[in-house]
Design goal:
alpha/beta; TIM Barrel; eight-stranded parallel β-barrel; 12 strands
């Protein structure tokens, strides 16, 4: 199991320093999160200052872009990183697509299938020189002049990762994607009862097996080097769980744990702009289900216990600054406990 750290920053000028910190900690890869910055741009810097680490968007907002722009960005980063890039895509929520990005919504599963098909058709044209003629329900790409055609990528097209929580999109990922990423707002029970069966159905529909699909997991952790930092980490993790729980597409994860009544309450609080109060509704039990909580020495073993038998890549998620020494301990423990294991 490889461990990825978040390439999260406040200023693009700080990316090189952040990359060096993540390398020193010992992460096997770096992932970007599309929050207050672009998910692709930092990898142009990271690719030049890393040699072995995998770089992945976990996940880029697919419907804020189109297949051709995504194909160009992914191809450039695959070339620059010498084959270490993974293109991770997700849908985002409808209101974000329409109101934040000012882009049209549609049938999300159908549209994602269409987007994946279009991206791969474009990549195939670039690699083989065959005529581009992709015509789907949402995307049609039929023109690719030599001036706009990249040379064949010696590292091949980057693998494609899809993130999802609902059964239909998860099934589509099992059928189409090279990687599937379990979003951080998932509990072990939800993954076992919902995610795994949907992926299995998708693999069967695509004539594939589990060996054809890499599994990545994003997991929130709450820990700290001392009591003050631990308390801050726990408070911020509670807020993050509450934020996810207020979003309609994530309500099913709460429902699976018997906490479905909490979603409308959290939803109402967001409409009333009571963001800072939301975390107070997240109990210790909820934190333990949705995150891994404990002292620094406990986190690594807990992560391995939860994910060690089935995960290929583990992305550690924090909404606070994780002390580098604490992070180094966690990564070292995970690697030591999973050394020699098959995922």
């Amino acid at each position: 199991m490889e461990v990825d750290g978040g390439l999260i920053f406040d200023d693009l000028a700080a990316v090189k320093e952040k990359v060096e910190e993540l390398r020193a900690i010992g992460y096997d890869g770096m992932y970007s999160f599309e929050g207050a910055s672009d998910g692709f741009l930092p990898f142009a810097i990271a690719a030049e200052h890393t040699e072995t680490e995998t770089l992945s968007t976990q996940v880029a907002v697919a419907f804020a872009r189109n297949p051709l722009t995504l194909a160009y960005q992914a191809n450039d980063l695959q070339m620059l990183s010498k084959g270490r890039f993974i293109l991770g895509l997700g849908t985002q929520a409808r209101q974000n697509i329409e109101k934040r990005f000012s882009m049209p919504w549609g049938k999300p599963v159908t549209r994602m299938r269409d987007m994946v098909g279009a991206i791969r058709a474009i990549q195939r044209t670039w690699q083989t020189g065959e005529r581009l003629d992709y015509q789907g329900e949402y995307y049609r790409h039929t023109k690719m002049q030599p001036m706009f055609t990249p040379k064949p990528n010696p590292h091949g097209p980057p693998p494609l990762m899809l993130g999802a929580i609902g059964k239909p999109m998860t099934r589509a990922a099992g059928e189409l994607a090279d990687w599937f990423v379990v979003i951080p707002f998932s509990t072990p029970a939800f993954v076992e009862k919902t995610t795994f069966p949907a992926l299995h159905e998708g693999l069967e529909a695509g004539g594939r097996t589990w060996s054809d699909l890499g599994i990545a997991v994003q997991c929130m952790i709450a820990t700290g080097a001392d009591e003050r930092s631990y308390d801050e980490a726990l408070a911020r993790t509670r807020y993050q769980i509450a934020f996810y729980g207020s979003t309609p597409i994530y309500a099913k994860a709460l429902e699976a744990e018997g906490w479905g009544d909490l979603h409308p309450v959290l939803r109402k609080m967001t409409r009333e702009n009571r963001w800072l109060e939301m975390g107070e509704l997240i109990t210790d039990e909820m934190c333990e289900r949705f995150a891994v909580v404990g002292e620094p020495t406990e986190i690594g073993p807990k992560l391995v216990e939860r994910f060690g038998g089935w995960v290929d890549r583990l992305s550690i998620v924090t909404t606070y600054r994780l002390d580098p020494e604490v992070a180094r301990k966690i990564v070292s423990d995970v690697k030591a406990l999973t050394a020699g294991r098959g995922s």
